[in-house]
């Protein structure tokens, strides 16, 4: 998950905690002398287009997050990168009965979770508690792993889990796998009941953590004039490619290679912005973000420098092809064009990549940079470099990420992980050292699992 231009330090754990990743990002900023170019404690209050440049209004913020609206500053830019992420506005399920749980502070979104003591609950989670975790994505899985052995019982609800019968013996008594919740029932005496697919009911639940994702949000696009370019809601169904952008809350549609817009429609009052003057980075999910965003930034800079070299017809054809592919995968070929439910399903899947797609995508961005830059000279300091293409070991090891994670967690639990990683990455061939370590961990995990099956 490292940027291609900056490695994690030697002996870093294979699955580093958040504090280690934060240190890595701070070291990256220091190494490349980025701090003088960053405005800390600043809120972006408004972004608009004035017919020539992007106008950005900012305001200082205090440590508690309070914005000082009385001290705004205004800037005008030729190129705008939107990089505010998509992990701040919670997305809640519409399951009946959930609202009373939220209001009574017996349920909260995973955005508020830090550890069992800071989970959003009004109490520290411990052995006396039965906790429901909803969501089978990375957040849900990480929280289940974090709570394992800390709370008395975890009920993990995900669409990928089979709806097993409540009385069936389970391999791990402290972990119960359930399908999607169908109804949150009334709470009595601080304990609650939840019904799941198949009619299964779990009672005596003390707390619920909802790891059901987030909504893409751009609160700084406030100006009415921005509604000509970015619309909240679902786009019309293809085959006609819209000339506006749509914030579907799952992503932004349509974007060339998931990064920058197509040409906007002309306005009577002012010329529209150049499509390559605006780029959205990091909207894709189920990916390793750092190398991917690095490639997106490089592609966006190439497009900004050479907008006349973009084959818009080719790019629109790629959009249409992905749309048709997703429609087929979701079984929506026969859906009516005006079916908003079908369109919502497609848009939900639009930015969600299957495991190997992220590597294909990085290579497609590298292709775009090659096409646009052509024989453009490198920057004198060597920074104008090609996008790092994916490597075979990345794909191969990503296919083993589950056993890699399980085995590494077991090594951490046994106190052996530090010995395994000590000194890795210090030699002249540091990448090969890391790859060799990961394959050794995979082989150990697969061997331990086979031994367990025989036993």
TrEMBL record:
SUPFAM superfamilies in the record: FAD/NAD(P)-binding domain
GO terms of molecular function: flavin adenine dinucleotide binding; N,N-dimethylaniline monooxygenase activity; NADP binding
Keyword field: FAD, Flavoprotein, Oxidoreductase
Keyword Oxidoreductase carried by entry: yes
Family matches, as Pfam families: FMO-like (PF00743)
The family this protein is said to belong to: Belongs to the FMO family.
PANTHER family: DIMETHYLANILINE MONOOXYGENASE
Official protein name in the record: Flavin-containing monooxygenase
């Amino acid at each position: 998950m490292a940027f291609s231009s900056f490695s994690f330090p030697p002996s870093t754990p294979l699955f580093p905690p958040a504090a280690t990743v934060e240190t890595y990002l701070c070291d990256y900023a220091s190494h490349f002398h980025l701090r003088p170019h960053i405005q800390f404690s600043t809120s972006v209050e408004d972004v608009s287009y004035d017919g020539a440049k992007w106008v950005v209004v900012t305001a200082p913020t205090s440590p508690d997050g309070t914005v000082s609206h009385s001290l705004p500053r205004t800037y005008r830019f030729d190129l705008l990168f939107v990089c505010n992420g998509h992990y701040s506005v919670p997305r809640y399920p519409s399951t009946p009965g959930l609202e009373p749980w939220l209001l009574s502070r017996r349920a909260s979104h995973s955005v508020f979770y830090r550890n069992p003591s800071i989970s959003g609950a009004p109490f520290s989670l411990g052995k006396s508690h039965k906790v429901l975790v909803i969501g089978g994505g990375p957040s849900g899985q990480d929280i289940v792993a974090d709570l394992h052995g800390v709370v008395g019982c975890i009920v993990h609800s995900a669409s990928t889990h089979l709806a097993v019968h409540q009385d069936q013996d389970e391999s791990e008594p402290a972990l119960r796998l359930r399908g999607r919740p169908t109804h949150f029932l009334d709470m009595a005496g601080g304990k609650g009941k939840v019904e799941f697919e198949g009619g299964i009911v779990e009672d005596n639940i003390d707390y619920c953590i909802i790891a059901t994702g987030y909504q893409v949000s751009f609160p700084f696009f406030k100006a009415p004039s921005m509604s000509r370019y970015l619309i909240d809601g679902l786009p019309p169904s293809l085959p006609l490619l819209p000339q506006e952008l749509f914030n579907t809350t799952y992503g932004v549609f349509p974007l060339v290679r998931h990064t920058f817009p197509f040409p906007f429609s002309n306005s009577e009052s002012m010329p529209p912005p150049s499509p390559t003057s605006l780029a959205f980075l990091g909207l894709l999910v189920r990916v390793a973000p750092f190398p991917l965003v690095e490639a997106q930034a490089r592609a966006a800079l190439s497009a900004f420098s050479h907008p006349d070299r973009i084959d818009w017809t080719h790019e629109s054809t790629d959009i249409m092809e992905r749309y048709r592919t997703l429609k087929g995968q979701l079984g929506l070929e026969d859906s009516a064009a005006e079916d908003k439910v079908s369109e919502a399903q497609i848009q939900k899947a639009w930015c969600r990549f299957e495991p190997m797609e992220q590597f294909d995508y990085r290579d497609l961005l590298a292709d775009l940079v090659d096409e646009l830059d052509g024989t453009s000279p490198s920057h004198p300091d060597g920074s104008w470099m090609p996008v790092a293409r994916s490597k075979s070991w990345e794909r191969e090891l990503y296919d083993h990420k589950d056993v890699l994670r399980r085995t590494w967690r077991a090594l951490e639990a046994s106190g052996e992980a530090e010995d395994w990683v000590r000194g890795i990455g210090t030699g002249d061939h540091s990448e090969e050292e890391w790859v060799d370590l990961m394959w050794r961990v995979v082989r150990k995990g697969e061997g331990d699992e086979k031994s367990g099956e025989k036993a």
